[in-house]
Design brief:
48% of the residues lie in helices and 3% in strands. It is mainly alpha-helical. The longest helix is centred in the N-terminal third of the chain and has 15 residues, at 12-26. It is globular, with a radius of gyration of 14 Å.
Amino acid sequence: MNLTRLFPLDSTEEADEETARVMLAVAKQELEGWLDEEHINNFPCEDLSTIDQLWVKYSDGKFGFSLQKRIYQGLGGTREFNRDIWEKFGDKVGWRKGGSWFHYSDFDKKAPEGHFPYEVVRMSLDLVSGYGLSVFLSRRDL
């Protein structure tokens, strides 16, 4: 699959949506529209790395899974889900404000570091529970 078509796109939101579409296609989950822990664990390392590198490159280091992983682990995040750390992560990357989780349409175009990609997170888990992302950001290949 040619992942380089993710960028450059007209907007960060467009790139985010395309990332989700590509990841669903790679995982053969287009019909289901979501990724579970098994799909996250088995997502091809090379494709994940390419997607991350494209995000990092085209955002000048502001966005990408590897940046999200650094932020998450810097807060003490591990593969083991911890609600307090998950909420702190949401606050740090701008997915939460005042204790409330945002909906995608609420995201500001001047998003903080680590804010994107987001759509793949939304389709992979209940945003409030955060469990799937703790698995995803604990992958060694990020």
